[in-house]
Design brief:
Oligomer: single chain
Radius of gyration: 17 Å
Order of helices and strands: HHHHHHHHHH
Largest sheet: none
Shape: globular
Distance between the termini: 66 Å
Helix content: over 70%
Length: 206
């Protein structure tokens, strides 16, 4: 392989990964809140710029747009990498990069959201069945407990199990899900403490 060919092989994955991180750094919760004239979600509720906190503003349409935006930005770069025939490790790296962009966005001083919707988008691109299993887990836990955070934590804990069952032949993708799950649970550590102390805010709970 000549020098030009080597540079192309090494540079292209880097471009994909950096582009995915930058896309992940776009905070739809902040942008949508500005568009609707709502308070910056980082200044209310849990301070998280995600759909759940935007919903606390009372504007369901804004929360829905935030959710769709965060899911889309997780799904799109991974789907595009798959459609472009990128190697499996590159696809996995793109998924982790867009997820890290949401958690630690360069545009917002590396202070981002918890990554639930973006992780769902990444999983949706890798395996719709995996995303469905994780989403149904969240829905079930939330329906019973009325705690969005608990639903996210349980779904994150079980996602690697679902990935192993559904994607055992694709170890890179399983590793991607494991990494996202660990980071998701870590980002919810304050919620875990509040759940254990009985002080966590739940929908429909006083």
């Amino acid at each position: 392989m000549n020098e030009l060919g080597f540079m192309s092989v090494t540079a292209i994955p880097v471009v994909w990964i950096v582009a995915a991180y930058l896309l992940g750094s776009i905070a739809f919760g902040i942008l949508v809140s500005k568009m609707f004239g709502l308070p910056d979600p980082r200044t209310v509720g849990s301070g998280n710029p995600g759909a759940t906190n935007v919903l606390r503003s009372g504007k369901k349409s804004a929360a829905a747009l935030t959710l769709l935006g965060d899911v889309f930005k997780g799904w799109f770069p991974v789907w595009l990498a798959l459609q472009s025939g990128m190697l499996m490790w590159v696809v996995s790296a793109v998924g982790i990069a867009v997820f890290l962009g949401h958690l630690y966005p360069i545009f917002y001083k590396f202070k981002g959201g918890k990554g639930v919707a973006t992780a769902l988008g990444v999983m949706l691109a890798i395996s719709p069945m995996l995303a469905l299993a994780a989403m149904l887990t969240w829905v079930l836990v939330f329906a019973v407990s009325r705690y969005s955070s608990l639903g996210a934590i349980v779904a994150a804990a079980l996602a690697p199990v679902y990935a192993w069952i559904l994607l055992s032949a694709y170890k890179n993708y399983v590793i991607t899900v494991v990494v996202m799950s660990i980071l998701l649970i870590w980002r919810h550590r304050t919620n875990i403490q509040k759940l254990m102390a009985g002080t966590e805010s739940g929908f429909g709970k006083k």
